[in-house]
Amino acid sequence: xxxxxxxxxxxxxxxxxxxxxxxxxxxxxxxxxxxxxxxxxxxxxxxxxxxxxxxxxxxxxxxxxxxxxxx
Length: 71
Hints:
Blueprint: H1 5-8, E1 12-14, E2 21-24, E3 27-31, E4 36-43, E5 58-62
Antiparallel strand pairs: 1-2, 3-4, 4-5
C-alpha cells in the first residue's frame, strides 16, 4: 500500500485493546535511505477539557505495534 503524508495524517488512530480513539496522526518517523516507516506520533493528551489545547505532548507508536492502516 502506498500513502502520501497528506493521506496518512487524515487517518484516525484507535487502540484495539480498549477501542479508545487516540486522535489523528500528527507526525511520522521514517528510516532513511530505506524510506521505511518506523512509527507514528499521535496526540498524547494528559490534560482535561479546555486545557488539552495547550498540551503539546505526543504518544509514539512503533511500526510493529500498528495492526492496520486504512478502512
